[in-house]
Amino acid sequence: MPSPTGAFSGRAGGNVPAEIRQQIATIPEAYVERALAGDWDAVARLYHQEAVQLLPDAPPVEGRDAIRGALARLLGADGGVRLTDFSVEIEGAEMLGEAVYVQASYRLEVEPLGEREGAVRQHGSYVNILRQDAEGDWRIWRQLVNRAHPPRGPADT
Q: Is the CATH code 3.30.70.60 the one for domain 18-147?
């Protein structure tokens, strides 16, 4: 299974100081590991308390707890599926004021639970806007996801 890259490919770290680049580069790896484990509580802790998530074909999801539920329904047992493959790659980052904008690409695969058959694959890109929380930890404050193709059912691609 591919793993996320901690290094910044494409447009390097832009104007993001090295110490912040190191901190935020750990977020994709943690996200992938926790999501593949189905630990949606741990994934949710990567989000800022005031986070807003914009997913394709869905209304905005506001707040860490709501995002946790949405992810469990989309990628986990709450939605009758299991995330079986997931990778991300940071393509660039820029710091604007007190926020860091991170552009990345993703690939994922979910398999239905039970007797249904056929994996569903998806890929695309996203932008995470990170801000520090009250403790000084960088968290996902805004997340905008763009699927690179129309929704697909069971696929062999």
A: no
